[in-house]
Specification:
The radius of gyration is 17 Å and the shape is globular. It has five helices and no strands. The protein has one domain. α1 packs across α2 and α2 packs across α3. The chain is mostly helical.
């Protein structure tokens, strides 16, 4: 849970730094839900390459949208309900400049790796569907 709290804090700070200060906590929740969803999708796609069939029953856009909505709700009640995010911000506010820089690099790296994982999984699935793997 501490890792998710830190991820939320860093995404929250990222949203504030790009000028979304009034609604930064909501943007952070949506970005967090999106990247977690992409990571799950990518891992499931890569598991197909190794012969593991993980079926979540997400075969329509409506079901995927409902799962995303549920994930956002879970993250909302975990981090935003009753302003819990203010406690998280207070916890990490006292970081020294080196830790802040390191945290920013970790979060930016996590976001980049998440999208690279998605692109890699799509590329590998395309190769498998063409019979090249």
């Amino acid at each position: 849970m501490k890792l998710l709290s830190y991820l939320f804090y860093r995404l929250y700070q990222l949203m504030i730094s790009v000028g979304n200060g009034l609604v930064a906590e909501y943007y952070a929740i949506f970005l967090m839900a999106m990247t977690l969803g992409l990571n799950v999708y990518s891992i499931i796609s890569i598991s197909y390459l190794f012969g593991y069939k993980i079926d979540l029953g997400l075969d329509t856009g409506l079901k995927i949208g409902m799962c995303f909505f549920v994930l956002v709700l879970i993250l909302y009640f975990t981090f935003l309900h009753k302003k819990k995010y203010l406690e998280i911000v207070k916890t990490y506010e006292g970081e020294n400049p080196q830790d802040k820089t390191k945290g920013r690099l970790i979060i930016i790296g996590y976001l980049i790796l998440s999208f690279l994982l998605l692109i890699t999984s799509m590329y590998l699935m395309a190769k498998k569907n063409r019979g090249e793997l």
